[in-house]
Design brief:
This protein has about 80 residues and is α+β, with helices and mostly antiparallel strands. It is about 25% helix and about 15% strand. It has two helices and four strands; from the N terminus they run E-H-E-H-E-E. A hairpin with a 7-residue loop joins strand 3 and strand 4 (about 80). Helix 1 packs across helix 2 (about 55-60).
């Protein structure tokens, strides 16, 4: 079993900060993981064009199930609070 962890930086490309969905999909496929833990994941956030990045990664790896569990709630540029 191959387990991986991946900080996806909200799906953004570090050099110019745009969201690269195709690049994220290609990277997840390249990991070839059976279990993948993601950090800095956006779900329905404006900065990532409203994409559910967890679902996108799960589809890319052919995962039959996935879960999104927020550590923080809020919007970029606003106040963040711990998710409950």
């Amino acid at each position: 079993m191959r387990v991986a962890t991946f900080n996806i930086l909200n799906g953004r490309v570090p050099t110019d900060q745009h969201v690269d969905v195709a690049g994220l999909v290609a990277s997840v496929k390249q990991l070839d993981a059976d279990v993948l833990a993601l950090q800095e994941v956006d779900r329905n956030q404006h900065r990532s064009n409203g994409v559910d990045l967890t679902a996108l990664a799960a589809d890319a790896m052919g995962a039959p199930e996935h879960r999104f569990v927020a550590a923080l709630a809020g919007n970029p540029g606003a106040t963040w609070i711990a998710a409950t």
